[in-house]
Design brief:
mainly alpha
Length: 133
């Protein structure tokens, strides 16, 4: 690969931007995430498709990011990829328990989760874009 391609920068920047704009959407339209989780909870097809998509994205993020203790962003991205794969497997095996937990949690703390997602996504995006400089 050419020296100009940095998969860690790209995965961090794009995942961070995704989180930021998902959070903005949730803050603009309260209840959106609860509705989404409720729809997934009721649809085994959405559970399968969502779990498979998260498994593949998590695997891609995990595999393209090296574990280099001197590179904090790469280690964070590798950990996120691993957690995404784990979450995908939990969704496939324990969706009834998992989505019930999130439905209760989002009802009580919808705005809080959106703000946390916005902040973490911003940090991730800045960490990714900072590597391009």
């Amino acid at each position: 690969m050419p020296d100009t391609f940095d998969p860690t920068a790209w995965t961090a920047a794009l995942l961070g931007l995704f989180a930021v704009f998902a959070a903005i959407g949730a803050l603009r339209q309260p209840g959106t995430w609860r509705t989404m989780i409720d729809e997934i909870d009721k649809s085994p097809a959405l559970q399968l498709i969502g779990g498979l998509l998260e498994l593949f994205l998590g695997a891609a993020i995990y595999l393209v990011n090296p574990w280099d203790p001197l590179d904090i962003v790469a280690c964070v991205m590798k950990a996120i990829g691993g957690l995404m794969m784990l979450e995908a497997l939990v969704v496939m095996g324990f969706s009834d328990l998992y989505f019930h937990f999130w439905l209760k949690n989002l009802a009580a703390m919808h705005r809080g989760w959106a703000i946390i997602t916005l902040l973490l996504g911003g940090v991730l995006a800045l960490g990714g874009f900072g590597r391009f400089v």
